[in-house]
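Hi W., the phosphoric acid mono(formamide)ester complex you wanted:
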Amino acid sequence: MLPFLLYAAIICSFNALLKPLIMRNFISTQTWSKSELQDIVNFAVSLKENPHQPLLQNKSVAMLFFNPSLRTKTSFEIGISELSGTAVILQPGKDAWPIEFKDNLVMDGTAEEHVKEVAQVLSSYCDCIAIRAFPEFQDWSIDRTDHVINSFAKYSTVPVVNMETIEHPCQELAHILTLQEHYGNLQGKDYLLTWTYHPKPLNTAVANSSLLIASKFGMNVKLLCPSEDYLLDDRYMDAARENCATEGTTFSITHDIDSAYSGAEIVYAKSWGSLAHYGNLEAELNLRKDFKHFIVDEQKMALTNNAVFSHCLPLRRNIKATDGVMDAEYCLAVKEAGNRKHVQKSMLTKIL
Ligand code: CP
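Structure:
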């Protein structure tokens, strides 16, 4: 009996020590290699053909939504269930206690508990913690630290998954699967990320992610935005430049609509807020009102090389893209949303 208990104690200690070393978060695709990401996409293809497999049996995922969602919430919850796992959805501040993230604070505000306890408690119940936490649109120097998800990653002892913060890696996987289903090999394809109008400034996450994944998968990436005020954070533009250099492709920035669309094979659209006017809503709204013509329409798509169009959704019709574009054969937005479920199931299987 004694040798067995000794053996069990050694194994438990070894696991406790090893777990943080082998644990893999899915917070940014930049910490995953292209071949690892391709493996996730490939397995998603097989899960799409054979969706019900007990791969997450006895596994549970706590999903914390600090912001609304239709696709992410539904596709994760159903996907986990299809793999025989359990998903728990929590909305801190609504059906769960509001959480504090700052350290060394007298917590006399609205938060009832600190992320240190929340992350540890959820880690004791669940095998994975997934987070949706958009930026607060006050100060980009704070929001760019992505402190909510990084705090969970710091204090949790189980893998942490990004369901959209200042990047949206799950959307990236679905985007690549959808484009590969259409084109096969994406190497050398001409990829356009275009800013579109929206009545209010939105998160840059999908735009950041678009640059990361298109460049990582070997495409020539062009960023079209109305002016320098709408350039993305250097972290993402530099990463795209580096990825393109590795792949032997090009990264360019333009403010000219016609030349940007000309010859494009993939058009991906997203609206985002100006980082130059971050936290100054009045100035931002005043700036963007002159850029309604950045809408994706049939005339612009006609300039492309028979391009496919996609968007992460949700999308305001006839504001971001016309009915004609959204209803065209070349619009892959709904297929991309559908593929979210398959790639997320594949990714969870990989990290759990
Ligand atoms: N694209 C996406 O993440 O959609 P939801 O915001 O509806 O989850």
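The chain has a mean pLDDT of 95.

W.
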